[in-house]
Amino acid sequence: MPAAPPRSSRPLAVVPPFPRVVALAGGTGAAKFLRGLIRVIDPVGITVVVNTADDVERHGLLVSPDIDSVVYGLADVHDEERGWGLRGESWQGLAMLELLGDDTWFQLGDRDLGTHVWRTARRRAGQSLSQVTAAQTRALGVAARVLPMTDDPVTTRVRCAGLGELHFQEYFVRERCAPEIEAIRFEGAERSRPAPGVLEAIAEADAVVVCPSNPVISIGPILAVPGIREALRTVPQSVAVSPVVNGRALKGPTVAMLHHAGVEAGPAGVGSLYADFCATMVVDRRDVLSVPGVEALGMRAVLAETVMDRLEAAVSLAAVVRDQLGFDDDQAGLPACAEGGCLR
What we know:
By secondary structure, this protein is α/β, with parallel strands linked by helices. Helix content is about 35%, strand content about 15%. Strand 11 and strand 12 (about 250) form a beta hairpin. It has a single domain (about 20-340), classed as Rossmann fold (3-Layer(aba) Sandwich).
């Protein structure tokens, strides 16, 4: 199947030595996908714009869960079995906090605590989240550029029946997504500005990729930052990956959030949230009956295996996305072994 036609009014530029790709990302699902993407497209050309509306302060420390999931995944130090945090963790710090009477519903391993101590010290010394994240990626040897969506405070608030308004992490982790959702808002989004480098990366991008993250509370906050959604409409090529498989989310409250947003909990519902800037939707092969609904939005629907239960599956899915963007192996800027033969 040929690559989708561009949805942008911006003229296509001469193809650079490697594609310049902006990826919009939440946490766990995005981290899995991005591990595949850097193996089929040169990571030097990839800029990942990450949701920060899940950020939270715990035990006096500033925690950026989605940034850490993405950075840990790209650095290949994440815990693949648990799906979050660092591989080889211990939990002595959390046990002491619990012994001292602190509420420990938000689990942080000992090595992960080191990240948050380091981040908090730098932030309180005056560095922005963008500056701290750049230092984090350098220290962990990540070749792709990782940017927070904004350096300004934006927080996802979930109003729940019987509980009132909760921080997203209280809803997601402490309450385990059990309460009925009455409303969702992104506090501070209307006053925020894109982080330095975000709009510039989009303006220079050959393509935008929307990772298989929760469309409402992972990608939604990024799109709510003034100027980002409008900028995305100018990018020549665009592909989104549906995070819903056969009516279910592999992780998290995606289905409940889509229902709350008033859209179908499937590829067409996800597509309706992106259709103004995205030309193609990669749909799981089990959702073939959803293809007409996606195409009715004016988007191309591409069937593929989207369940990333191992690294090879993430690489295969990323290769589908790369092909739909119209990049061949030479343009992707990687050696022939990258797609499958150089996995680590």
